[in-house]
Design goal:
The chain is of the alpha+beta class and 396 residues long. The chain has two domains: 164 residues, 2-Layer Sandwich (Heat Shock Protein 90), CATH 3.30.565; 220 residues, 2-Layer Sandwich (Nucleotidyltransferase, domain 5), CATH 3.30.420.10. Strand 13, helix 11 and strand 14 form a beta-alpha-beta unit. Helix 2 packs across helix 3 and helix 12 crosses helix 15.
Length: 396
């Protein structure tokens, strides 16, 4: 039995490797994500003031944040630390990412053991070590001491990505520009959601939707400028039953986003505000399951507008990005165009809310057949498969 468990653990570790896409990420975003996780999980303070704001990294943010959180937990358990520091600086063609603490010297043997032992996250023991994570990035990790400052730190050598503003791109696409995940929990349990969990997917009514926005940071003030949606009933896309509305964001549209969605300031001037549009869309989507691609991003924008609009979206949400990863786990890309190409869906009207909603709906209908082949036939089973997918675990 012990040999079989060891073999299963090795197999599981190997299966995880194809799920680790290295993606370009601003270093400040990675440091902020790690700091939030450490502070929330360990109840300590993390200083991120010494971060190069211009540095872009090529990383798997999920595994790297996990490694930083694990090491921070070891330090807190061992020394009772209340403050840690994250530093990030360029080092030739790579970058140094440091997890720093003051005082409390520890033996090199102890610190090395934390690097090579499987990571323990609460009661969950991972099959991966910190060294496994950093080797996946083609980097190194070691320990350094600054005796004059009485500081010790783990130093991660990680790959650098080019600044996207300095790299010419023939045609920007929304899925490459918008973050793949956002701080909205798609799996919040509600009474309406529980009531539908045992219903077959083929029998449910869906509202497939998409939004266009002034930029990519809802918490920083970006707002919705267009909502588009279509209906699926009894496994059929009802193209004539649609919602398509421009919205006056009452703030400037980011110049960088205009080439992507083509919506200029004069096009939204005089359109209704989100406080007027959202109740109408809420009524359109009532008693249906919401479907979107990278839906957490769109749902975060809706969530921030709910209070002013006097609405609340409490129905279940399915995400074609997560469902596609569940049925095709070894694909390198789950961008909407890539999924559409794999499933034979023609892409038209891309980067308009209604056009993206139609493409997402066609993709979703084809995913339903693939889910059925895997025994995923109810809403509850689809939500569970989504929850277990790699991308559902990432939040920052």
């Amino acid at each position: 039995m012990s040999d079989r468990l060891d073999a299963a653990a090795r197999s599981g570790s190997g299966d995880l490797a194809p799920h680790w896409p290295l993606q370009d990420m601003l270093g400040t975003d990675l440091a902020s994500a790690a700091a939030r996780r450490i502070e929330a999980g360990l109840g300590i303070s993390v200083d991120t003031s010494d971060i190069d704001p211009s540095l872009w990294l090529k990383v798997d943010s999920y595994s790297l944040v996990q490694a930083l959180v694990y090491l921070a937990g070891c330090l807190v358990d061992q020394f009772g630390l209340r403050v840690l520091q994250l530093r990030l600086a360029r080092a030739d063609a790579r970058a140094h990412l440091d997890l720093v603490w003051s005082g409390h010297p520890a033996s090199t043997e102890t610190l090395m053991g934390w690097q090579i032992d499987p990571m323990q996250m609460g009661n969950h023991r991972l099959s991966l070590s910190v060294r496994d994570v950093i080797e996946r990035h083609g980097g190194e990790v070691w320990i350094e001491r600054e005796r004059a400052r009485h500081q010790t730190f783990f130093r991660f050598l990680v790959p650098v990505a080019p600044d996207p503003q300095t790299v010419p791109e023939p045609a920007p696409t929304l899925d490459e520009g918008r973050p793949e995940f956002y701080d909205f929990d798609l799996f919040r349990a509600t009474d309406s959601g529980r009531a539908l969990e045992d219903r077959p997917l083929a029998e449910l009514t869906y509202t497939v939707f998409d939004t266009e926005t002034t930029g990519l940071d809802p918490s920083g003030g970006d707002r919705i400028i267009q909502i588009g949606a279509v209906r699926i009933v009894n496994g059929r896309l009802l193209r004539g039953e649609r919602f398509d509305q421009l919205v006056d964001p009452q703030r400037p549209i980011s110049a960088a986003s205009i080439p992507i969605h083509g919506i200029r300031q004069e096009m939204v001037r005089g359109q209704p505000a989100i406080e007027q549009v959202l109740p109408v869309f809420h009524a359109f989507a009532r008693d249906t399951v919401l479907v979107g691609h990278n839906a957490a991003f769109d749902m975060r924008f809706l969530e921030l507008a709910e209070a002013a609009a006097g609405t609340h979206f409490d129905q279940p949400v399915l995400d074609t990005l997560l469902l596609a990863e569940a049925v095709h786990p070894n694909q390198s890309s789950h961008r909407l165009e890539a999924i559409a190409e794999r499933l034979g869906v023609q892409v038209a009207g891309r980067h308009t809310a209604i056009g993206d909603a139609v493409v997402t709906a066609e993709v979703f209908l084809r995913l339903l057949g693939l889910l059925r082949q895997r025994g995923i036939v109810t809403l509850g089973q689809a939500l569970e498969a989504s929850r277990k997918s790699y991308y559902a675990r990432v939040s920052y």
